[in-house]
Amino acid sequence: MTVVDWDDSFSVGNAEIDADHQRIIALLNELHDACAAAAPQAIVLRLFATLDDAIGAHFRREEEILAENGYAEVEAQRVEHRLLRDSFATLRQHLPASDRPAAAERVRDFLLGWFMSHVLDEDMQFRSVFRPGIATS
C-alpha cells in the first residue's frame, strides 16, 4: 500500500534533490508496508538503516548543492537536518528493546511527518534557487 505518492508539487526543481526525495518516498512506502504486515524485526531494522543512509546522503548532497548555488539559508538547513538525524537516531536506538510493532510505527509516523513537513515547507523555501520565477511559500 502506498502511503505517500510522488507528486510534481514536491519538486524543488533540482533533479538530484528530487531523485533523493523520490527514493526516500519509496523507502517510506516500503517501511509502511513492513509495519502493516508486522514484518520480522530484522527487516524493519534493515529498512531503518537503509532510510538512515538515504537520508544522510540526501542531506549531504542537498547542503552541498545549496551552498554551490549560493542559498543564503543553507546553515539553517544544516541545523534542521542535524536535528532530524539526532531525533531519528534516538528513536532507532530504543527500537530493538521496545515493543517492536508499536515502536516501529511511531518511527515510521515520525519519518512520514518529517518528510511531508520538511519537503513541503522547508525545501520549498529554496525552490526559487532552481526555478526562477516560482514563488516560495
Structural class: mainly alpha
Q: Indicate the CATH architecture.
A: Up-down Bundle
Question: Could you name the CATH class?
Answer: Mainly Alpha
CATH topology tier name: Four Helix Bundle (Hemerythrin (Met), subunit A)
CATH homologous superfamily, by name? Hemerythrin-like
Poorly predicted regions:
none
Percent in helix: over 70%
DSSP strand count:
0
Percent strand: under 5%
Distance between the termini: 30 Å
Radius of gyration: 15 Å
Task: Kindly describe this structure.
This protein is mainly alpha-helical. It has a single domain, classed as Hemerythrin-like (Four Helix Bundle (Hemerythrin (Met), subunit A), Up-down Bundle), CATH 1.20.120. The protein contains five helices and no strands. The protein is globular.
List the topology elements.
Blueprint: H1 15-36, H2 41-68, H3 74-94, H4 100-122, H5 127-130
Helix pairs in contact: 1-2, 1-4, 2-3, 3-4
Keywords:
single chain; 137 residues; mainly alpha; Four Helix Bundle (Hemerythrin (Met), subunit A); 72% helix; globular
Short description:
This protein is an all-alpha fold.
